[in-house]
Specification:
With 668 residues, the protein is α/β, with parallel strands linked by helices. Helices cover 36% and strands 21% of the residues. Strands 27-31-26-32-33 form a five-stranded parallel beta sheet. Strands 3-16-18-17 form a four-stranded mixed beta sheet. Strands 5-6-4-15 form a four-stranded mixed beta sheet. A hairpin with a 2-residue loop joins strand 17 and strand 18. Helix 1 packs parallel to helix 6 and helix 14 crosses helix 17. The structure holds adenosine-5'-triphosphate (ATP) and the ligand Nc1ccn([C@@H]2O[C@H](COP(=O)(O)O)[C@@H](O)[C@H]2O)c(=O)n1. One of its GO terms (molecular function) is ATP binding. InterPro entries: Cytidylate_kin, Cytidylate_kinase_dom, Enolpyruvate_Tfrase_dom, Enolpyruvate_Tfrase_sf, EPSP_synthase, EPSP_synthase_CS, P-loop_NTPase, RNA3'P_cycl/enolpyr_Trfase_a/b.
């Protein structure tokens, strides 16, 4: 997951490959609760692992429910409609799919068995209405108090005497989650008799209620429905665990990849999406129809989709989106690529989601140059006449972050030059799709020249690696320690007994190095050589063999391959001059020889190597002299490099300086 302050997406061009979707959030949290209310154990497969499911799991554990991993699945041992814990304070983050159903279930359980529960979340959760649900629960005798503002969480659920009686009336035109919460919880009271729920107003987001009914059925509760206005829970309904249950992929998350296929995949190599398809029980699967109406070509199987570009530009749309409220946000970004204005109607629920999504989408789309008009329940988007680079605010709303990533394809819509897109606070995607951006980068391609590179060159022990790693971490970029490639060649040569002057054999060795990098370090032929590479004699040998042009040539392709999305920070001697001469920021890092010898001394001692500071000083000066004087790719600043002497600068200050320079070069 990108836990950076922002993530810059360079202009993207094409998409192909296969995406495996994470589990559906709506299904995951409903299944967790139903499993917890049932008798016996339920083994849940393919559950979504995200912020919203984590708060639900934590809450269930606090309530005394056993939730344990079993292989790749999660085993939930239900409480059988009883209370194991009578008092708890539950933090539910910003998860509406946890807050509403837990509020209903715990209000009933607290009344039936005696209990006291407080439910709260992040500040935005305390701005999301829950009054209609509370009013419905009070009709049957639940005792619920508002601990903050009337009509909003946090809530206290304590006491009361829930009783079956007249039909329970609930509003259906603000959020369908109120009805879902009642449907999931009321079987707890059905030992007293049949329960009837009557919906006031036009029920919105009906497909989500269908998911609820479908899952209740899987857990043994058959709800009868009369249109969308009257629901009957039979007397003596009991939650029965189905034993095993599979969570299908998230259809709302599929929308970003369906859109991606429509924008940037070719018929010869469609984008394949696995986890949802024609058999999906999620309403957002109907996003497929909307995407097709805009021009997408789609082939589907029971649990997969293949999507590629059909009409181009996309066709403008005027659509009632009440049935796909979440996925419809993706349409608003697809609208940037349409032939005219696209109007999305009947989306008033956007205003009470993670943020006021109508206002947020309008504000951010305008930043890209789109014309946008909005009303209480609609948004109309006119594609930009001139695209602008934009830093997209995400409002702690995962869907805003994910759908705006699609704006990075503006080059396909004729933006000249194509503009990058900055996604602020990209980690908000953790709510439903923690590795969304990694998944995206796995199936998109761009012109390598569009992938930004920051080069950091300089003499031995000036702090290049430390600086490069600090900058890469802040930007979420990949890291290339090119010295490690020369050191690995040196180590392999030492082990193979190849002399330092045998250029041909050394080059052949370098060209076929069985080298692999991961979070644990550098692996040579399956052995972790991270520490071995740092030995001084390996560095000295690396300096000798790196003077051979054939060795340098053999390692060039490997270095270029590090230029991957979303960007690269590369350190070495010739990063800015030879390997990445087009890098938009080049830094030449220096420090006095004495300072560098002292730092290297400390570094070696801390790794358990013995070292003498005078010898180190001599060695590093000799190494620098050789690196500077060789004929191929000598150590020198690129003409357009920024010089940084960090002799008296802390690591943090050095990193900040480079980030400041980088920021000045960015168009945001
Ligand atoms: N600004 C700084 N202030 C103090 N110490 C630093 C600073 N920058 C780096 N160091 C320390 O100096 C040592 C050498 O740094 P580093 O390994 O990053 O240098 P390098 O230039 O990459 O070396 P090499 O030439 O071997 O690749 C490390 O122990 C690091 O923590
Ligand atoms: N781009 C590069 C990087 C390194 N070298 C040579 O390798 C030696 C070891 O590098 P470290 O950065 O790990 O110390 C170095 O002395 C250089 O001779 C290079 O030539 N080009």
């Amino acid at each position: 997951m990108y836990a950076t302050e922002f993530l810059d997406l360079p202009p993207l061009r094409a998409a192909a490959g296969t995406v495996r979707l994470p589990g559906s959030k709506s299904i995951s949290n409903r299944v967790l609760l139903l499993a917890a209310l049932s008798d016996g154990a339920t083994l849940i497969h393919d559950l979504l692992d995200s912020d919203d499911t984590r708060v639900m799991i934590t809450a269930l554990k606090q309530l005394g429910c056993a939730v344990e991993p079993q292989g790749e699945a999660l085993r939930v041992t239900g409480l059988g409609g009883r209370l194991a814990v009578r008092e708890a304070q539950l933090f539910l983050g910003n998860a509406g799919t946890a807050m509403r159903p837990l509020a209903a279930s715990l209000a009933l359980l607290a009344g039936l068995h005696g209990g006291r529960f407080e439910l709260g979340g992040v500040p935005r959760m305390h701005e999301r209405p829950i009054g209609d649900l509370v009013d419905a629960l009070r009709q049957i005798g639940c005792q619920i108090d508002y601990l903050g503002n009337e009509g909003y969480p946090p809530l206290r659920l304590a006491g009361g005497q829930p009783r079956v009686g007249a039909p329970i009336r609930v509003r259906g035109d603000v959020s369908s989650q109120f009805l879902t919460a009642l449907l999931l919880a009321l079987p707890l009271l059905s030992h007293q008799g049949e329960l009837v729920i009557e919906v006031e107003g036009e029920l919105i987001s009906k497909p989500y209620v269908e998911i609820t009914l479908n899952l209740l059925r899987r857990f043994g509760v058959e709800v009868a429905r009369d249109g969308w206005s009257r629901f009957t829970i039979p007397a003596h309904s009991r939650y029965r665990s189905p034993g095993d249950i599979h969570v299908e992929g998230d259809a709302s998350s599929a929308s970003y990849f369906i859109a991606l296929g429509a924008l940037a995949a070719d018929a010869a190599a469609p984008l394949r999406i696995e986890g949802v398809g024609a058999d999906s029980i999620q309403g957002d699967i109907r996003f497929v129809e909307a995407a097709e109406a805009m021009g997408a070509q789609v082939r589907q199987g029971p649990n997969w989709l293949e999507v590629w570009r059909g009409a181009w530009p996309l066709k403008a749309l005027d659509l009632d989106c009440n049935h796909i409220p979440d996925a419809a946000m993706t349409l608003a970004v697809m609208a940037l690529y349409a032939s005219g204005p696209t109007r999305l109607r009947n989306i008033a629920s956007w205003r009470v989601k993670e943020t006021d999504r109508i206002t947020a989408m309008a504000t951010e789309l305008r930043k890209l140059g789109a014309g946008v008009s909005e009303g209480p329940d609609f948004i109309e988007v006119t594609p930009p006449a001139a695209w602008q680079p934009a830093a997209i605010r995400t409002y702690d709303d995962h869907r805003i972050a994910m759908c705006f990533s699609l704006a990075a394809f503006n080059g396909l819509a004729g933006a000249r030059p194509p503009v990058p897109v900055r996604i602020l606070d990209p980690k908000c995607v953790a709510k439903t799709f923690p590795d969304y951006f990694e998944t995206l980068f796995g199936v998109v391609t761009t012109d390598p020249a569009d992938i930004p590179v920051i080069t950091i060159d300089g003499p031995t022990a000036s702090g290049k690696g430390t600086l490069a790693s600090g900058v890469a971490q802040k930007l979420g970029y990949h890291l290339l320690d090119s010295g490690a490639l020369y050191r690995a060649t040196a180590l392999a040569a030492q082990r193979a007994g190849i002399p330092a002057d045998d250029e041909a054999r050394l080059a052949a060795l370098a060209a076929a190095l069985p080298l692999h990098f991961d979070e644990q370090g550098v692996w040579l032929d399956g052995e972790n050589v991270t520490d071995a590479l740092r030995r001084e004699e390996v560095g000295a040998l690396a300096s000798q063999i790196s003077a051979h042009p054939a060795v340098r040539c053999a390692l060039t392709g490997l270095q270029l391959a590090f230029r991957r999305l979303p960007g690269l920070v590369a350190d070495g001697r010739d990063m800015g001059t030879v390997i990445f001469p087009d890098a938009p920021l080049k830094v030449f890092l220096t420090a006095s020889a004495a300072t560098r010898a002292e730092r290297r001394h400390k570094q070696l001692i801390s790794k358990g190597f013995s070292a003498n500071i005078d010898d180190l000083l001599q060695d590093l000066e000799a190494r620098d002299a050789r690196d500077r004087s060789r004929s191929t790719a000598p150590l020198k600043p690129a003409e357009d490099a920024m010089s940084l002497d960090n002799s008296a600068l802390s690591i943090e200050a050095s990193v900040q300086q480079v980030l400041d320079w980088w920021q000045q070069r960015r168009p945001f």
